[in-house]
Amino acid sequence: MPIQTPPQAYLKIIAKQCPKALDTYLQLWEQMDQDCKVYAPYADINDLFLTSRAKFKHDLILLSSSMLLSYVFIIDKYVIELVGWDEEELTLR
Fold first, then answer.
1. Does 20 or 1 have the greater pLDDT score?
2. I want to staple 59 with a disulfide (CB 3.0 to 4.6 A). Which of 24, 30, 42, 68 is the partner?
């Protein structure tokens, strides 16, 4: 079962490397399933994430380059996987 909130160490990474993507990351975290995946239909991006599709894609690129998630666009939706967390290794500083 995934951790209920993002680990502080990973929030620090986002705050330093891509602060504009923090809101998207938190929303993805809230919507992920037990496999740490989010299925986001392209047509629903504006309503689900309260942002434009272009900004959402830009945020995914930033978060992916920071190695916090991976994503693929398949036909009409994004399949997004947040990286797995090992509670014993959350000692980043």
1. 20
2. 24
